[in-house]
Amino acid sequence: QVQLVESGGGSVQSGGSLRLSCAASGSTYSRRRMGWFRQRPGKEREGVASIGTDGTTTYADSVKGRFTISRDNAKSTLYLQMNTLKPEDTATYYCATDAQWWQSLSPTDYTYWGQGTQVTVSA
């Protein structure tokens, strides 16, 4: 139905930047909300950023001012620009989508998930 593939993860030093991408296929991307989530070992999966079909965005408090979510509907691609990375940002980052228009940081609101991309930030 919907396939999501994340890319752009890697290792970076504290204070560095990374840009994650999520390519979507199998659905009308522009009509689906998108979100970025992350999961650290022993922790629950948490919402990082989300963007609705109208471009409205929301961010977790822990990343506000540092991360920016955006979408390119023409390319069916979601992005997460991560700046001023901290060691606590180390996690597996997942792209997710759902057939609704409004943004949401709740993992339970999303039906389709990518396989994740690892982000490691060294102190």
List the helices and strands and how they pair.
Elements: E1 3-7, E2 10-13, E3 18-25, E4 33-39, E5 46-51, E6 57-59, E7 67-72, E8 77-82, E9 91-98, E10 112-113, E11 117-122
Parallel strand pairs: 2-11
Antiparallel strand pairs: 1-3, 3-8, 4-5, 4-9, 5-6, 7-8, 9-10, 9-11
Separation of the first and last Cα atoms: 40 Å
The low-confidence parts are none
Report the sheet with the most strands, covering strand number, pairing sense and barrel closure.
7 strands, mixed
Shape: globular
How many H/I helices? Answer: 0
The amount of helix comes to under 10%
Which whole number gives the mean pLDDT? 94
Q: Could you explain the architecture of this structure?
A:
The chain is mainly β. It has no helices and eleven strands. The strands form two sheets. Strands 2, 4, 5, 6, 9, 10 and 11 form a seven-stranded mixed sheet that branches. A four-stranded antiparallel sheet has the order 1-3-8-7, with no helix packed on it. The N and C termini lie far apart (40 Å). The mean pLDDT is 94.
Brief summary:
By secondary structure, this protein is mostly beta strands. Helices cover 0% and strands 50% of the residues.
What brief labels describe this structure?
123 residues; seven-stranded mixed β-sheet; 0% helix; mainly beta
